[in-house]
Amino acid sequence: MMRLRQAPAIAMLILLAWAATASAECAWVLWGVTYEETRDSKRDRIIRESMDNAFGPQQKSTEPAPEPKYNVIWEPTSAHETMKMCYAAMGMAKELLPYVKYFKCLPDGTDPRGAKGGAR
């Protein structure tokens, strides 16, 4: 009697597992990554350049100027039915979007930007 009660639960788990793998194979998103200089880094760089332009180059410092800091920006560029089609579109996207640093194909529903806030 106990096995009869477990059968629908097992069938449901098998069905859910099959549906999850099927959806992963039919929906892919091509993501592009760009970089944007942070506001503080840009401000410091502009001040440093303005001082050099106004008063001439300052004395050589023993330490180099700080490296600019960048925010990573992930943007979905296109959606495709299969992984193969996604990678095929990547070649065309590289030509059309030269400012994008690199591209990545991920299954639909996978967000490389991380989880949205909201949990407290």
Order of helices and strands: HEHEHE
**Structure summary, number of beta strands:** 3
Radius of gyration: 25 Å
**Structural class by sheet pairing and helices:** alpha+beta
Largest sheet: spatial strand order? 2-1-3
Q: Report on the biggest sheet.
A: 3 strands, antiparallel
Mean pLDDT: 75
Number of helices: 3
- The fraction of residues in strands falls at 15-25%
Low-confidence stretches: 15-24
Distance between the termini: 44 Å
Which percent bin holds the helix content? 40-55%
User: So what's the overall shape?
Assistant: elongated
Q: Can you offer a commentary on this structure?
A:
This protein is an alpha+beta fold and 120 residues long. 47% of the residues lie in helices and 22% in strands. The protein has a three-stranded antiparallel β-sheet with strand order 2-1-3. The longest helix is centred in the N-terminal third of the chain and has 25 residues. It is elongated and about 60 Å long. The relative contact order is 0.21.
